[in-house]
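Archive entry: two folds, one per protein. Generate the first.
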Amino acid sequence: MAVLWYQTDKGGDANEIPMYDVVVATEEGRIEKGKIYPNPNGGNNYYDVIGELRVPDDTVESGYRLVPFKADGKLVDDQYEILQKSKKFEENESNTFLPQLLAGLIPFLLVIGILYFLFVRQLRMAGRGALSFGKSKAKLLTRDKDKVTFNEVAGCDEAKEEVSEVIDFLKDPKKFQRMGGKIPKGILMVGPPGTGKTLLAKAVAGEAEVPFFSISGSDFVEMFVGVGASRVRDMFEQGRKSAPCLIFIDEIDAVGRQRGAGLGGGNDEREQTLNSLLVEMDGFDTTEGVIIMAATNRPDVLDKALLRPGRFDREVVIGLPDLKGREEILKVHAKRIKLSEDVNLEDIARSSPGFAGADLANLLNEGALMAARKNKKQVEMIDIYEAKDKISFGRERRQLMDEEDKRMTAFHEAGHALIAALLYKKKIKLHKVTIIPRGRALGLTMSTATKDILGQSKKELVDDICMAMGGRIGEEVETGDFSNGAAMDIKQATNIARHMVCDWGMSPLGPIAFGDNEEHLFLGREISKTHNLSEETAKRIDEEVSRIVTTQFDRAQKLIEENREALTKIAEALLEFETIEGKHVQEIVEHGEIRSEVVSTKTEELKRKQEEAAEEDSEEKKASDKNEDIPPAVDGAQAMA
């Protein structure tokens, strides 16, 4: 390339002039000297000419100065003869060998380079990938990035105590070995989704000053037989080299599912991977300082050989947090959110039983989003409650309904609310009633637990059935007819009654389990089992279920007829405000009217419109007062300011 550039760049920085001007200057004797180079790239009679041109200049003694020039173009025979006869030009032969050689080699070299890049490099990468195909995908966590400590994990104190022993062992293993004790080789964390199993493992990684390898159970599963087993062996080899260390396997049920399950054979990739995992864990010695931690929310499908002592010999159950745990979790997540002074985290924790840690974090986040949507500076209590309703029951849908549908929905929900206000006293209280569609329902009667419900008595269960029947009766009392809107209520009541008879022994049939013994194939169990029920027993079960539901239907009908006036007032309040709280229903039942302020989406919207109208009136009044202050003109017309 340098040679080609040199060949085409004769003359350097000289002034470029047309070839015709060179011929004219030669005839006029203004050429001092020059050189002629044939240029075969331009064709026949094509030349490059360089030299020096005399330019008149009175400031110089000679009367002219020399200016370098260059030109390229065609020279016919007559023009070339003029340059020769001037004897000012030196003729040079063209050196075409090297440019021609390079012109032929460069395309060939380019093709070779492209082929190398496309094929040879890809083959090398493929070879390297083939060699690393069976390598472990475990990632070494760095403690400096996104560090999580036990202070950020709340609501599972017992689990924290269990895993804290692991950290103590890694920091001072001789303390346990001196007493002859051994730290568990494997710790399996079990719990519902969102309870903080993976977060607890991250906290262990943040607290323990040892290497922490993290991998998902799905990373072992591949299409090719033997790859998963190879990755298991490589992962444990990494652990031995980095001991003492922790290896965390998330969602281990992806690879640890029971062997020989279903209709297939036992020689598939997943089972070979599990076999390799069992062998590697059994071959580990705790003195090496390598501890396996795993998490799953499906311990029922894990292979029994994986759960035996010597492998995962400690099971840490991380359940749903209780009242105190929920409050602590809310305190952890509330540090990142601007909360108003009226926000009471204890009340939020009390009204959210059954929420996991992830649900509580999502609750505060949804409240913050709602407050930002309303252009508020802080998150208020009403935003948190709206977010809770959205998460639990779905978002409000402003579906267009005519007055007839609204009235039927109002009396349906009023029937539920009236029964709930009359029966629910201790564990459960009526939270809110609305005729605004949420989720797939046209209206909702929302109840919340006042405490963590660990079990329900027979009286509480039949109260639930009675409350479910109230919606259908409310429709029938008002309209003389009923709709299919009570389908889910009937299904829920029937399921509770069937469980009472078949599973919980709450019927004259006695404390006998008549439950269904079918198992699902995908759980790794048997497809089905025989039912040890005679036709007579099945008939008696159906009769008992029907008796329980019918009895509670009659009970609900009697309660609503005795409180007919309260039913009408609750329905009218729903038609007026669209949403009322449980305390308002209780006030109607006890006092015959609503005595406290109703705060709902409709009332907030009306309040906002009133404030906007008042602001507009205030601006108009200010403008009129300003106009009145302007003095009138002399001719009586209003003056212009």
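Generate the second and append.
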Amino acid sequence: MRYGPVSAAVCVREHFLNYRGGVFETDEFCPDGLNHAIVLTGWDDTQGNNGVWFLRNSWGPYWGESGYMRIGYGISAVGSCANYIVYQGKCDEIGVFQPGGTWLIDTNRNGVFNPDIDLQLGSFGQQAGDVPVAIDWDGDGNQELAIFRPGGTWFIDTNRNGVFNPGIDLQLGSFGQQASDVPVAIDWDGDGKQELAIFRPGGTWFIDTNRNGVFNPGIDLQLGPFGQQASDVPVAIDWDGDGKQELAIFQSGGTWLIDTNHNGVFNPGIDLQLGPFGQQAGDVPVAIDWA
């Protein structure tokens, strides 16, 4: 089921009460209206006369088939008044990193900074040239502050207090040692934990799949060329919503390239080329799950 288990109603009378197993095909009628709530957990079009629902009851494991029933479609008005929950996931906040190590996070999501309501953190990332990255390192759904320091050192604020605490927070590297390397956080394998990644101008991508903060040939991934133009900007984006982020490139003038087949090169006719979207000089690309 797309939305998980479905809460629904059914008519319950003598035959339903005495169900012990098998496919229930006795169509009972409740003259005073439906009288029982159940949960539909699945279905099978091949069973019964026209297919069955897998119904979970609330009467314990000694009723029916260990607390469940296989009931024919439409029998006893099963499935009436159905309800399900759509989980929208967590929402991203707007954040700003100020050189010198101050972070501002718009926790009330109104688009302005409200002292005493929104967060001001730091100092975290105090050296000139430090590059801010937001990364879900531990897979709990909350992103941590991170800093990439040119030369290949990464700092991750694992206790989320906005300062670097040696022995508690993480210092990793060297990963991304060339002067032009660009840091990216990417959930490549869809496990909910983002990996460190580096985009090297010219189109080479390095992904730290074993998450030890260094590049291990034969273990970590080296992909490309993908993003070969001098002005190409790397983006990690979950384009298809499967939990795995794809490599993407934003090109000056508003062209977007998305590596939908996840092989680290651009395959015309297979991968996506979109745009123009972002045509003004200086436009900066962002991947955002807005809805």
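Annotation attached to the second fold: DSSP finds one helix and 21 strands in the chain. The first helix runs from residue 14 to 17.
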